[in-house]
Amino acid sequence: MRRLGGGVEDEEKWLAEGIAGIQHNAFFMHRALDANNLREVLKYSALMLSELRTSKLSPQRYYDLYMRAFDQLRQLEIFFKDESRHGLPVVDLYELVQHAGNILPRMYLLCTVGSVYIKSKQAPSKDVLKDLVEMCRGVQHPIRGLFLRSYLAQVSRDKLPEIGSDYEGDANTVMDAVEFVLQNFTEMNKLWVRIQHQGPGTVRERQEKERNELRDLVGKNLHVLGQIEGVDLDMYKETVLPRILEQVVNGKDELAQYYLMECIIQVFPDEYHLQTLETLLAACTQLMPTVDTKIVLTQLMDRLSNYAASSPDVLHEFLQVEAFAKLNNAIGKVIDTQLEMPIVGAMTLFVSLLTFALRVHPDRLDYVDQVLGACVVKLSSVPKLEDARAMKQVVALLSAPLEKYNDIVTALTLSNYPRVMDHLDDGTNKVMAMLIIQSIMKNNSCISTADKVEVLFELIKGLIKDLDGNATEELDEEDFQEEQNSVARLINMLDNEEPEEMIKIIYVVRKHIMTGGTRRLPFTIPPLVFSALRLVRQLESQSGDITGEDVQATPRRIFQILNQTIEVLSSVPRPELALRLYLQCAEAASDCDLEPVAYEFFTQAFILYEEEIADSKAQVTAIHLIVGTLQRINVFGVENRDTLTHKATGYSARLLKKPDQCRAVYACSHLFWVDDDDLDGIKDGERALLCLRRALRIANAAQQMANATRGSSGPVTLFVEILNKYIYFYEKGNPHITPSDIQSLIELINTEMQSDNNNGNTRRTHSDPFFTSTLRYIRFQKQKGGLIGDKYDLIKL
């Protein structure tokens, strides 16, 4: 009676009844064993084994029942071995058990006695095994037949006539062992496949689950085949593999084909797979369309890749059998024939094939490009790649060459690499672009030609401009800044010692980053500017201009490009950044002795300050930057320098806050007295003193304002700072700074501090220790003696 339905409770009841039947008959069988009563032993063992004839149980519960009987059969085998207990020769016993009434108990008993028969060596192992495997055909119920043949395989495993075995036979002994296992496997596979046809279609899903639970019973035969001593490559190629694949292909069963192909790949040696690659791949193309062939092929390629990595000595074998070409063709056929294969499946196959090519043939970039080209063709057949899993596989495909070669330059030579990236969505394109930049920085790769930079920036275009017109507002600000900082670091890494090639690189970078939009330009223009200035200084050190067919690398031409580039920043608007870059360019132009160019950059900086910079803090920073840069520049003539210093001094005096005015004005004093041998003639002590006196007046005004608003004069920090400037210029030899000026300023500071204390303000500020340190410095100089000491002796403390 076949199991058509029944719940879990029913099956539990039937299992309990079966176990009870086994235990009941086992009890009487053991009594007969103790009495050495062969007739009773056979009677009750047959009754016990009859419980395995049930059709009511699922495979899992049938297995529980089978294991109870199996434990008893082990005791029975021990009894059969001891002829002194039952009194029959094993040959007669082998004949006797064949008279059991039902075929299933008969076959279990026959297998048990057959095992003893082989051990007695009274007959060749191959003959007994052949007899057993043939007679097992009498049980055709799928589940009962599978477990019976599983029992046969188990009791015969250590009795095969293989080389080195106690049961080794004649010259064909290995073939006899192989033939037995293959025959048993063939019959088990047929029984396993037939399970799907048992019962109505409404229980098909449950049947497939049950079949999956039974698969190891079939797969064990292949494991045994893989362990038989003496199965060489020729036997495997001519007999073993064709017979197995015949069952796989002809079975026309999805579950069986997938599982058995997986077993073949796992249990047989790698070198066998390599030498029979064409046969294996041909079978893969003949599998059912619903079989997940990609996993089978992926496992095969992974095993072969690991085999190639195990020893360099085996690589020539891959070349001899043309492994890559065969795998490539097979994958192409599978993808073309399995029209229902999802795009993620095809991408997974390409990733495995690429990994195989990189591990086995790392020097063959044409193989890598070939795989990428096939990927492009497949992606082109899809309107839009939206599958997140497929996108992940494409990223893995593009990342593999970077990880293998540790050099983006190699990847840049692959013509199909950017074509694959074009199929990524915007988010994934950015992820891949970041991986590329990280690879460059990690390996300190040198991208030194304009052509390669062009290809590179095409690859990372997702980071340097909005793709498909999509704005960047949706992106998290922190992530956006990280992306753009990475692009900036990349630009700084681009370099070439040949100026004519470097100017081409700068042109290429500029072309790409200028399309980046207002949010990106503040990140990408500064590194471009500094790369160009590095080239300017290189040209200046070589004392010559470089001209080529397409570009003219002269400092003047480069400064023109930089002026146009920085001008864009002022419209972003990022005037503070643009001002800093103008000043950097002005200093570089000064080093190149280009006075008109340097003056123009300063003019642009002042225009930005007047028209664009309105924030008071930004104005303070800008003025100090202008003053500091102007102080270092030595290229200006008297007229131009006077114009610029006058402008700087005027802007300083018009800052919003009095302390800021004061500090900016006394900083301007350095524009008139520059202690630098290269700036001969800029030692206008009188105008430097005027700046200091003007700063002193502003400091006084600040003190009065503080007194009016807070009732106290406030800290004297500004006076102490001005005092230090007086001391600096006095020490540098400014004749207009006298000891009396310094002494008067010291007395003023003491007066202000005393007045503040008298008003009850006892707060100590940082100006107190600052002033104390200044006085200590003067005393120290007095004690040193010499010319400096004589100068400081004139100051009375």
From TrEMBL:
Gene3D superfamilies: Vacuolar protein sorting-associated protein 35, helical subcomplex Vps35-C (1.25.40.660). One of its GO terms (cellular component) is retromer, cargo-selective complex. It comes from the Eukaryota. The keyword Cytoplasm applies. GO terms for biological process: intracellular protein transport; retrograde transport, endosome to Golgi. It is found in: Cytoplasm; Endosome membrane; Golgi apparatus, trans-Golgi network membrane; Prevacuolar compartment membrane. It is a peripheral membrane protein. Keywords: Cytoplasm, Endosome, Golgi apparatus, Membrane, Protein transport, Transport. Pfam families: Vps35. Plays a role in vesicular protein sorting. Belongs to the VPS35 family. PANTHER family: VACUOLAR PROTEIN SORTING-ASSOCIATED PROTEIN 35B, VACUOLAR SORTING PROTEIN 35. This is Vacuolar protein sorting-associated protein 35. It comes from Raphanus sativus.
